[in-house]
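My current task is to audit a protein record that another person submitted. Please read both lines and tell me whether the tokens look consistent with the sequence. Do not assume that whoever made the record got everything right. I have pasted the whole thing underneath without changing anything:

===
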Amino acid sequence: MKIKIIKIVTALTLSVGLLSGVSSTEAATKEMKVHFINVGQGDSIYIKTAAGDDIIIDAGNKDGSDVVSYLKKQKVKDIEVMISTHPDADHIGGLDEVLKAFKVKSVYAPKVSHTSQAYKDFLTAVKREGVKIKTAQKGVKLPLKGVSATFVAPVKTYSKSDLNDWSAVLRLVYGKKSFLFTGDAEVKSETDMIKSKQTLKADVLKVGHHGAKTSTSAAFLKAVKPSYAVLSVGKNSYGHPTSTVVNRLNSMKVKTYRTDKSGHIIFTTNGSNLSVKTVK
């Protein structure tokens, strides 16, 4: 008699699972993955939320084929959100190829323009896909399920002679874990973020401007309090990352990863725990 009862309970459990369309395995693996793609001296970040949404932040330099290839390996079919942090070629350069390769549902960028070919190619690609660019600025929230994704910068308008402080800075929260993606935001923007009294705390910080000494101030690090930091950097003539920033991160006991040394850096979180792996 006991055996029959167990069989009935098991059958009912399976039926409920099938009716809801969610297997017990899927229910147990609600994880978000954040990929810092190794694109050399540039930035590109791919995020797969636990709800299944795909986000791309920047796409490295002029040739975006490496980013497209990486996304295809991750079995990306379409992209819910594309973010261009600012018009510099080492961030915006490959976005036109990503737009060509995937259906992109929404595009966000700060309200600043540039005369560079990379920026023109980006605008042409966005227009061709029939998407309108939404303004990335402080307080704008991304309409995504299961996560909180809010732009904390740019807080103000800045001089067009230096585009870095225009960088769209996104804070992404899933459960108890948080990430801050800073683009090339420098001290002026960092100071405005702090003064604006927004929550900047993050477990993982994408270090601003590839580790340039004009970003990642002590005050900003104190506000963010990261456990991990990622330097997206390649061979360059700028001296990135600077010893000033590397030493500052070390002195605050932040576990730091570099794409030029570790390759792709992938964080996985279920909202409670956080793990990291590197792939060359």
About this structure: Residues 2-20 form the longest helix (19 residues). The chain has ten helices and 14 strands. The chain has a mean pLDDT of 91. The CA atoms of residues 111 and 135 lie 6 Å apart.
